[in-house]
Amino acid sequence: MTPESQSIIPNAATWRKASYSADQTACVEVADWATGAAVRDTRHRDLGSLTFAPGEWQAFLDTAKGSLR
Fold first, then answer.
1. Tens digits of per-residue pLDDT, 10-54?
2. 43 within 8 A of 31, measured Cβ to Cβ
3. Lesser CB count within 10 Å: N end or C end of the chain?
4. CB 39 within 8 A of CB 27
């Protein structure tokens, strides 16, 4: 992550369970908005989240989707 990715998560951000989180005990939540995205562990929400600038988030998604083919 670059310094520009250290964005603040908007209060209105909507968290959703990632579609590839298989079971109920090991889930990842994602929130995205116009200026970034964040990922957090549902079992440890109190530890915070990783935030990404839009370009970083898109690069992550592109790479993850490519590895699933």
1. 667 788 887 766 666 678 899 988 888 999 988 888 898 899 999
2. no
3. C
4. no
How crowded is residue 52: how many other Cβ atoms within 10 Å of its Cβ?
Answer: 23
DSSP assignment of 7-64, as one string?
PPPPTTPPPEE-TT--SSSS-EEEEEETTEEEEEEGGGGGG--EEE-HHHHHHHHHHH
Residue 6 CA to residue 3 CA, distance in Å, equals 6
- List C-alpha distances in Å: 39 to 28, 31, 61, 69: 7, 7, 12, 22
